[in-house]
Protein: EAL domain-containing protein
Amino acid sequence: RAKAEGRGCFRFFEQGTDARVRAMAQLESELRQAVSDEAVVPHFQPLIDLGTGHLVGVEMLARWPHPTRGMVSPAEFIPLAEDGGLIGPMTVSLLRQGCRAAGSWPAHVTLASNLSPMQLRDANLPATIANVLAETGFPAARLELEVTESALVGDLVLARRLLEEIRALGVRLALDDFGTGYSSLRHLQLLPFDRLKIDQSFVGAMVADKESAKIVSAVVGLGHSLGLSTVAEGVETEEVAALLRGLGCDVGQGWLFGRPVPAHRIDALVAVPGEKETNRTRVA
Ligand code: C2E
Ligand code: MG
Ligand code: MG
Ligand code: MG
Structure:
């Protein structure tokens, strides 16, 4: 519990410690129920090819519409799920829902999903993922899993083995939030990543801050020279998108192209034939 508090979640509890502990236990039991009811749902954010402007994939982002608290953000409930031993079942539930939804989208639309660092300590993870793919019939090649470098701190040998097993299923791997936290070039060298996601803190600052633009440029070059595709997160303006295009960054993700939306909004986006490009690639 102290760990979760330290990570800044549950700011909505301002009572004394006892009341707070009880309230968190209550919320945890609500979360457990929500996971088993498939009431924690994936939203999907467009990934756009910066060269063509086409939708090439979506990233699944967990959402918990709570009956009284409104939409609870993953920054709040993911740490609670990790603490309460719920992250495994939650991930399976989200992956199932995501694969079912994405199975009806065109074959070139990939589905990216986030893994929690804890999950790279779970020796059953590759089998769990294989099961979801078998159950849903979703092609492994269309699934991409995102991990942050905090997942690689600790038992790097185990993490590497699990990532290699997952990669061997045909699932692709992305290193998320690159440039923050524990960035180590060793990780890029040792681990079987397919793409590099450049953290939004650099991307968002590109226009105002030359240093950030230089860092993004260097990371795009580094990624490409290692054979990785590059994704810029947090693309909010056309100006940033233009700079990224100039650098040869492959894919953009951000409010400019669309916020995370429920599956039916993506259904609508990919289904309409002959619609104008701007309508196809902008969701929100
Ligand atoms: P992430 O994987 O780096 O996801 C990107 C975050 O940036 C998302 O926040 C997204 O809504 C937000 N974002 C996208 N475009 C923009 C933009 O243009 N501007 C700004 N300011 N933000 C943008 P979200 O949905 O709140 O998720 C936060 C984090 O929670 C994710 O970061 C991921 O680490 C974690 N998360 C979300 N869903 C899951 C999940 O199913 N499992 C696990 N383990 N973690 C998850
Ligand atoms: Mg991510
Ligand atoms: Mg990220
Ligand atoms: Mg992030």
Remarks:
- The CA atoms of residues 1 and 83 lie 7 Å apart.
- The pocket of C2E (ligand 1) is lined by residues 45, 61-62, 73-75, 78, 94, 114-116, 146, 176-177, 200, 233-236, 253-255, 260 (CB under 6 Å).
- The two ends are 36 Å apart (CA to CA).
- The chain has a mean pLDDT of 91.
